Fold this sequence. Notes:
Strand order of the largest sheet of chain A: 7-8-9-4-10-11
Number of strands of chain B: 28
Largest sheet of chain B: 10 strands, mixed
Radius of gyration of chain B: 33 Å
Radius of gyration of chain A: 18 Å
Distance between the termini of chain A: 39 Å
Distance between the termini of chain B: 24 Å
Order of helices and strands of chain A: EEEEHEEHEHHHEHEHEEH
Shape of chain B: globular
Strand content of chain B: 15-25%
Largest sheet of chain A: 6 strands, mixed
Number of helices of chain A: 8
Strand content of chain A: 15-25%
Number of helices of chain B: 24
Oligomer: heterodimer
Structural class of chain A: alpha/beta
Amino acid sequence: xxxxxxxxxxxxxxxxxxxxxxxxxxxxxxxxxxxxxxxxxxxxxxxxxxxxxxxxxxxxxxxxxxxxxxxxxxxxxxxxxxxxxxxxxxxxxxxxxxxxxxxxxxxxxxxxxxxxxxxxxxxxxxxxxxxxxxxxxxxxxxxxxxxxxxxxxxxxxxxxxxxxxxxxxxxxxxxxxxxxxxxxxxxxxxxxxxxxxxxxxxxxxxxxxxxxxxxxxxxxxxxxxxxxxxxxxxxxxxxxxxxxxxxxxxxx
Amino acid sequence: xxxxxxxxxxxxxxxxxxxxxxxxxxxxxxxxxxxxxxxxxxxxxxxxxxxxxxxxxxxxxxxxxxxxxxxxxxxxxxxxxxxxxxxxxxxxxxxxxxxxxxxxxxxxxxxxxxxxxxxxxxxxxxxxxxxxxxxxxxxxxxxxxxxxxxxxxxxxxxxxxxxxxxxxxxxxxxxxxxxxxxxxxxxxxxxxxxxxxxxxxxxxxxxxxxxxxxxxxxxxxxxxxxxxxxxxxxxxxxxxxxxxxxxxxxxxxxxxxxxxxxxxxxxxxxxxxxxxxxxxxxxxxxxxxxxxxxxxxxxxxxxxxxxxxxxxxxxxxxxxxxxxxxxxxxxxxxxxxxxxxxxxxxxxxxxxxxxxxxxxxxxxxxxxxxxxxxxxxxxxxxxxxxxxxxxxxxxxxxxxxxxxxxxxxxxxxxxxxxxxxxxxxxxxxxxxxxxxxxxxxxxxxxxxxxxxxxxxxxxxxxxxxxxxxxxxxxxxxxxxxxxxxxxxxxxxxxxxxxxxxxxxxxxxxxxxxxxxxxxxxxxxxxxxxxxxxxxxxxxxxxxxxxxxxxxxxxxxxxxxxxxxxxxxxxxxxxxxxxxxxxxxxxxxxxxxxxxxxxxxxxxxxxxxxxxxxxxxxxxxxxxxxxxxxxxxxxxxxxxxxxxxxxxxxxxxxxxxxxxxxxxxxxxxxxxxxxxxxxxxxxxxxxxxxxxxxxxxxxxxxxxxxxxxxxxxxxxxxxxxxxxxxxxxxxxxxxxxxxxxxxxxxxxxxxxxxxxxxxxxxxxxxxxxxxxxxxxxxxxxxxxxxxxxxxxxxxxxxxxxxxxxxxxxxxxxxxxxxxxxxxxxxxxxxxxxxxxxxxxxxxxxxxxxxxxx
Lengths: 252, 852
């Protein structure tokens, strides 16, 4: 790990955690509690899935932890850094250096090649990539010479693999993936999930993934269930069946 | 569907602002200049009507000579007057004398400068029926030394009754005594022209000819119509004279002035059309982008049953509304602009007395029509594209517009380019009367052709221009370069708007530089003298001929040779005829003989330039018939065909000064310039001669003594002055082009919201976002500027090549100016990106990535 934080993490096993986080939209009759006193810990080197029905707040939670959205109550830490104390510039730097992102769609800058997309965060930081690490990543993505192609010339699955590779390339504390398989067919989807699984197993990368697909969640080490902005369940070493059972239990 | 259009219009109103602005500015310029010129024209119509109000019939010479100052007529003898007076129905008839004069102020400087209104010398008419002047103080002029000034001249100069007033004439400075101050009707001046009034005999000597009138004004008894009276007078006057009604006379003066205003108006109109032409690119771009952004919406409309026609119609209707509204507002601004300029002109004393604003309905309608039509036509291609959106597109992600390199585009672009080039060539080299229009058409097609080919060359161009940026700024430059390359059509249309403006600037700059270089070259090659005396005045107010001999007797002077100019009809049309003292002028300006002998040119003879002789196939010894403005018909023998590098005014006819003095009355026997050669042409000799020369020139108001370097600079300064006027007029087109750049950047920032959000999410700082947009803007600006300059240089080269015969022999490129233009383009590019870059940097990351 080459990432820097303001102070060494007290608890080395925690990549990020939230303390009593609440987020409210609107007021009066239209008041919606998107997150309601959420306290979760994302362990380092683990693959955590966040599940829940639509409107459960799973995406909101991820956006807040990733520093993309603000919260009304509570605290969020990436490593030991408290996000509520950071201004926009510091947040930008945090995202660039400490966090990786994989979105559902539109992950890649269309004008840059796959390889350029992978090195983009480092280029933005004006930092030379760790060549050895980069070679490893590129080899793992398995695009071969297609890394010099533009996103429009790649399949959806390949594009998402490039997106994950980009997130991995800067060796972030934590990678957030927002429905990374949402736009893919099941084969491409499992390709990506296996790729992320491999990143966790082989490189001890921390990944947090939001999904509503039990099959996708089954690749994770742990599944957190959210309903109406609350954490309602926490399942370790899940498989697809156990996930579906749990979901049924709270009527999702 | 109308509802959809209107909703769309409201939803995109911010995006349509640039379209509206470009139409508005063009229409405002167009209608404003028309309103202004109509108002000025109307005000001068009124001036002429006022000035000639008391005249029922005018008797004048039938001989008219066209001059660069308008048509002028030969004077008529005062012997005609008695016959006119005796015609029944004539209440009063008097000869009118009018001429340019130079009244001096208390410091012996011209009271009215050469740039100001004209300063006329007039005779005081004695019959109340004809004299529009009334004395407000003092008495009318009667004695030979009496002068009466109009109220404004008296006020400006501070002269009061009894003061001595000096007037500069060909025989030197003459002193008069101010006996009266007069007003013309209720006005302080004679229709804006400041005037000095004298007794008839006095003013004949000063600015006219003894015993001659410019015309005879007749007032009737009002028992007959002007036409009847005019017919009666016609029968009483000798051949060579004619009678016309006062109304006709007034209308002639009005239409002569309207012609000048018309040229001015057309000149301005050309720039308004250029501005609108540039604006059309912005309209095209805006609608293209709106259509691209609304692909999904349009596809949805198609999916639920809208026909292609309806989709097309909705876009066209949107364009129509925007165009119409912007044109209306533009006309409003135009009228305000005209009022402002009119007030400004009045405050500097340019226009006539009371000038109400005239709003010509036809011009206003045409402005609105043109503004609306240009918007419609520019939106037609995008609208057509919109109508071809397949319904299935609603289900797809919006694809990036990647068209632009089709074969059809290249072929049609090259075909248009060939057409434009041919028209340019034909207009420049052909002998068509409408050469200018053909050249304009050629330029238009070249610009259109480059716009058509633009998308093909935009990508490699942006790539090359962006390369150094990418080298120096890494990722931001890389992204900027890619962004400029990714949508070649948009990049090139945006750049095209700038290209046209810059192309014209470059063209004018190159042409002007070539004209300047050619002038300097010509002077260097032909003038062997060291000093030149010039004046901005003409005719009776130019340099007195005796000045040359006075200068010649100044210490250190070898020769002082003057050049005069007059007008004569040759082959039925008015021509400038120059006059020199051949042996003397040959000492200071190089003339070489092609045929005959130039230096022995004498009375009864005329010389022609080699060019003129070739064009007219003249041979030595051939008789040339001339009708001089005042000197009458004369036949001269062609005795010399000469060649000179000197930039000669007019077609190249030259007579001797002695011949000139035979055909021009003494009051007009002047030089327009005097060239001086010194005994000692070294730097010290030039310095030593100066005081002696100044002693002579200081006695002549308006005379300007210049050494050769100053003279060359003065000649090129005239070009610079014209250049700055054209630049100001082209500035509007450039402003519109920059608005286009801002617009394109804003719309692409809007379009790339998600991409920018992604970049921000993965760690791009606001500063880096701003820098990317800024660099993209610089690439687009540079592209337009560089292509424009290349076109401008080529156009300039073509024109200069075609004008070799007109004395533009040197092709020169003003490198420093062009470099300044490029630097300004970079600054403008950065400036244009300010707002879009701020918008982009302020994007909310979360909203950006979750926006649909």
